[in-house]
Amino acid sequence: MSTNGALNRKLRMALVGGGRGAFIGRVHATAAVLDNRAALVAGALSSDPAKAKESAPDYDIPEDRAYGSYKELIEKELALPETERIDYISVATPNHTHFEIAKAAVEAGFNVVCDKPLTFDLAQAEELLKVVEGSDVVFAVTHNYTGNPLVRQARDMILGGELGEIQSVRVHYLQGWLRTRLELEGQKQSSWRTDPSKSGMAGCFGDIGTHAYNLARFMTGMIPEKISCHLKTFEEGRQLDDFGHALLHFDNGGLGTITASQISHGRENDLFIEIDGTKGALEWRQQDPNRMIYRENGKPHQIYYRDPNAPFASPNHAACCRTPSGHNEGYLEAFGNIYCAAFDAMIQRATGESFEKVNTLYPNVYDGVEGMFFITQCVSSSEEGGVWLPMKHPKARP
Amino acid sequence: MSTNGALNRKLRMALVGGGRGAFIGRVHATAAVLDNRAALVAGALSSDPAKAKESAPDYDIPEDRAYGSYKELIEKELALPETERIDYISVATPNHTHFEIAKAAVEAGFNVVCDKPLTFDLAQAEELLKVVEGSDVVFAVTHNYTGNPLVRQARDMILGGELGEIQSVRVHYLQGWLRTRLELEGQKQSSWRTDPSKSGMAGCFGDIGTHAYNLARFMTGMIPEKISCHLKTFEEGRQLDDFGHALLHFDNGGLGTITASQISHGRENDLFIEIDGTKGALEWRQQDPNRMIYRENGKPHQIYYRDPNAPFASPNHAACCRTPSGHNEGYLEAFGNIYCAAFDAMIQRATGESFEKVNTLYPNVYDGVEGMFFITQCVSSSEEGGVWLPMKHPKARP
Amino acid sequence: MSTNGALNRKLRMALVGGGRGAFIGRVHATAAVLDNRAALVAGALSSDPAKAKESAPDYDIPEDRAYGSYKELIEKELALPETERIDYISVATPNHTHFEIAKAAVEAGFNVVCDKPLTFDLAQAEELLKVVEGSDVVFAVTHNYTGNPLVRQARDMILGGELGEIQSVRVHYLQGWLRTRLELEGQKQSSWRTDPSKSGMAGCFGDIGTHAYNLARFMTGMIPEKISCHLKTFEEGRQLDDFGHALLHFDNGGLGTITASQISHGRENDLFIEIDGTKGALEWRQQDPNRMIYRENGKPHQIYYRDPNAPFASPNHAACCRTPSGHNEGYLEAFGNIYCAAFDAMIQRATGESFEKVNTLYPNVYDGVEGMFFITQCVSSSEEGGVWLPMKHPKARP
Amino acid sequence: MSTNGALNRKLRMALVGGGRGAFIGRVHATAAVLDNRAALVAGALSSDPAKAKESAPDYDIPEDRAYGSYKELIEKELALPETERIDYISVATPNHTHFEIAKAAVEAGFNVVCDKPLTFDLAQAEELLKVVEGSDVVFAVTHNYTGNPLVRQARDMILGGELGEIQSVRVHYLQGWLRTRLELEGQKQSSWRTDPSKSGMAGCFGDIGTHAYNLARFMTGMIPEKISCHLKTFEEGRQLDDFGHALLHFDNGGLGTITASQISHGRENDLFIEIDGTKGALEWRQQDPNRMIYRENGKPHQIYYRDPNAPFASPNHAACCRTPSGHNEGYLEAFGNIYCAAFDAMIQRATGESFEKVNTLYPNVYDGVEGMFFITQCVSSSEEGGVWLPMKHPKARP
């Protein structure tokens, strides 16, 4: 892996969220340091100050940088000399707290890596975007599945025209873990994700529908013109959707579909995408991430595999592999690849170089805003029986 | 395989259609006789009398029963003594001719096995249904995929309540062969299928969307309450849809989706169904027909396989296997299983027993009418931008 | 499918074996007539004359040609005028009876399609070969798996040099059905297969090891120089092997392995072959017969699929498909393809044309002898602790 | 993940090997710290002192602990106060140097994590074992594939008797990367691996055959009684084997086979194992590591999947998962799991607790010795035409 080059030191990370019982905080902490390009040096690991401090040893965060709140974190880190101060803050808290944390971090001049969805609602997202645009920070959003080498291969192929014009995109993201009212049993992950005061206006579509949408956007580069959506709550008494289906119309007449479910028995984390173009078609499945199937009429189907040394590997594929082919890379590595791309920008910023803010390889704040717009339009459309609503947000990346 | 029991002879079949260049006629002829329960003894193999007669030797049909038209076939067969006369007529012609042939056959008292979709339009289908209801004939429609042993296993499991309440049904039927304007090259299969004067009001959705719909209906037993559809014609200049997506609402709040494509590069004949219930979920893929995946949260995923001797094999599964497990059965056998179920009824009729006409194991004229209703509602919905239309036809089987 | 051309009639088949409780007889009867090129007109369906006659109606064999023994069959058929007389006899009886039946048939001038293994022991096989060589009959042996279109594709590719020099061949044939002493429960299939007086000197290796060997021979065209084998009987009290492993040395230094098992829990009929060449490598699995994986370093893996119209389909692949791609063909069709190739030769014989007897597309009596030699050498080698024995039989086809 | 408990600090790691151009050193460095239980603080990254020091920044090793040789490393680390001194040394150098480095480390009292195969030859391994037995160090060998959660599940099931008596074990480890003389092109990985002065007496069988053997040993717990092997060098001019096949006899009459190849086109890193027991059978494939297939006659095949929360997850499976099911874990995580198990023992040692040295969850020095014995017997057997040699080493773990 590339080191941090001109920066000549590791980037310093602070983690907000991730205290005991959390899931995604640990993932951020592990993925960010996977390549030895960053070190976790500070944290505000819980909104409960006592728990925040108790959790610090789990992450090897020294006591004096184990803060009781994100506010304390920002204040105290700003007070440190620049040579010790953190470079970025990773926000791994429930959705409803992203905005205030991320906004404060940006305003303090820290780079941010924020979990998805970006904020609690669209208004917050648009407000946050303004703040980011008024700053010079690097702002990444962890739509982590775009970090898979073969997702990047697919994108390179599609943007390079190999599939021709794209006419159908079908994305499924199927899980089964909310088939029962797990949230009634005090399971932390399900509790906040099914609570509209914490998760926002959408449940399943906010949590995983946004990943599905973002994956399609990333791989094809196409912005849908309009969207129609039907959300369902199949588990009685649950306050948010646990299933949904959206239809997308593209300018070229193409049709997209997104199905997301959290009530499909036995489905683990089954994110699956199929893309049909006039010249070729492909499919990729997150649970089998090291291969991708490419098809053309009249030719044998082709299985592309993760292989940094293969002649067929596109630049963005080859660049984000850590091991030779056949040595399975998965969830953590893909997550780490989002960090790596953001690190490159952070280093450019830190060393005074100019850096791309819109068309980044990593999902950024524009993608985050578009994700919130997606949620908003889906919920609005669904509430009105699936009415078509525009999907082109003025701030969507081109 | 069971023999023809009380009938104590083979059933006598006539084939209409299937002349040189045809595809499905040969399939009918082979599948029907697979178990030695029927013999092809007569035919009107083409609408062109000369070609009809020329094609007869390909099917080993004797010259004196190689008729120049279906009318001649019916007239001459009726004139034969009952001990020689055909028992049933298989209709394997382009869609626009099904009605007149089937109607004449029924009115003459012959059993009918008709290819799908049932007729050119819904009015014809409803008219034909009346004729059938006024008769005593057995009338089967070859939605052949329901003849797969594991499709029947799935149905037995679902109707038996093993999956609980069904909340999501997702069907995809993907092909790639019409990715180019094959119809301009004089290829017979594509020519009539893309011609609205022969195929009817729908292309892709008439040809394969109906199979997808029927499969969902057969496996779940559920009738959708309403439907919304978007059809597309991606190949410029083509007159009928070559892609489409329909959304189904069920009474219980469940949601169904049907995607059919003929423009997906490299997809051969990929009919795939996933069904989510409150207790379990399953998936089955036509191109891998001898297995079915069943999932329940917290348990290993289970691969059911075709095996007439397995303790887990449901009665309708076990009854339609011809070989032990691991001896791949496929398209022809499933097609043959539709015939077998229809044969059972024909024998009951011939031997004077009463027989079920509505809730049959084989797809019947009611299913055919519902298929035409599906096409009609899809096209109408699509023409009005995907408006929701009712999907419960008064004649749909319960 | 091609018709019988110059012969201008169906071939007439007699079946020996196949009475009630049998498995492979029905397969012969169905596969042989799949393309309407033959008709089953006579039979001696059981060694028990009463049962033989009782079983005839199951096959629609008229009473006057339902014979009580193969001897009667041959005698009476010879007495019929040539225009009615059978063309060939299919031998679908337990192994120990093949020799006398096949020999008598050949001596009477009838073509023969004999199940495998060819005979009870090698001496019989060599004797039978002499008889066949002294005759003008067509003699096929149903190593049915070589009838799969993609097996023939693989062979065409290998013999055409596309894989380069072959250095490793690995074949597995795994079943689980004899995991328990099924033979003690009166199950007919297991009873004779585990009885050395009926099955011959080998059990598992005679029944399925020979298929595995033949498949490797057919696909690669290479004759092993020597063989070392270890047979096992894992089920206590069983008299014949139910598991075994053989190692093959080829002249070019290449190594082959054959593993056959009837005691592998849950394995249905899992015949699997992998072939490594200097230029490319492939694998094919009988339970997924419509695809084959081909690999070359540095290129995406390629999935070849059964498709008579694909540009990549080799002549022998395209010629034996009955339906377009995606319409699963399986066990019966492959079995039927053995018959088709034999029919072509029978027609050549019947119409007085010369025909190939050694390098046939269908497995022939030379392959049958080689199969018996394989069994003999395996058992001998195993009895002596795996000693290496020569594997080139003087009569092996080149 | 569990933290370091009573130790209350990270373990301190030194890496020997891993300089620029290396592969496995980086893997050790990443896997060891994946859970924040250890930190890489020192290294002797190359046998070339200048290169060793140049490579240090890539690993974030401070200059003062970037040593020019392993001897310097040991000497200088011993001179540090115990509170700073490394806890263990990871040996990630070519095979011929393992012995001297590991021996010196053990003699200095450092724990060791050594790459496989353990040493250059068996004599060294046995000598090293004596040294380890005379010490109190933890000594792990990175047969990393045993760190996969489902490999441990399989072992738990087998040792718990769920599969009954094991009768057949089949392991394949197929790669294609040495299909050409890559070593002639100066590629570092291939150069030493094909050089008998660095790799030892075996090539393919030393590099990956040992993994295959160890996997079978770990999963079944069974020691083969004797072994017969055939090694091949298919690439002309290569000095070591690039392909081989070994046959194993077990005391209970069971048969094992190991096939390893580095010349199979397009095979990436395909380690695959099948195990047949009297009650059940399973298979696991390294390239699809998050699932395992379990089969029993008469039941649907079962796909076990990695899921720490599943009721079916065995203790050793659940304990080594980092993420929920469906979040692919792969090569690095499995490698890290070897470290984790070794860490537990290192902590026990460091805190004065007693700890298991023979029957460890991690592969240990006894497994390393057995691996060298395996290589030795394979090469000896192969040189004598596959003669059977004993496989029970007196020091093999029971």
From TrEMBL, chains A, B, C, D:
GO molecular function, one term: oxidoreductase activity
UniProt domain GFO/IDH/MocA-like oxidoreductase: residue ranges: 151-283
Top-rank taxon: Bacteria
EC number: 1.-.-.-
Domain Gfo/Idh/MocA-like oxidoreductase N-terminal: 12-143
InterPro entries: Gfo/Idh/MocA-like_OxRdtase_N (IPR000683), Gfo/Idh/MocA_oxidoreduct (IPR051317), GFO_IDH_MocA-like_dom (IPR055170), NAD(P)-bd_dom_sf (IPR036291)
First-tier enzyme category under EC: oxidoreductase
Signal peptide: none
Keywords assigned: Oxidoreductase
Name by which UniProt lists this protein: Putative oxidoreductase YdgJ
UniProt organism field: Kolteria novifilia
Gene label: ydgJ_1
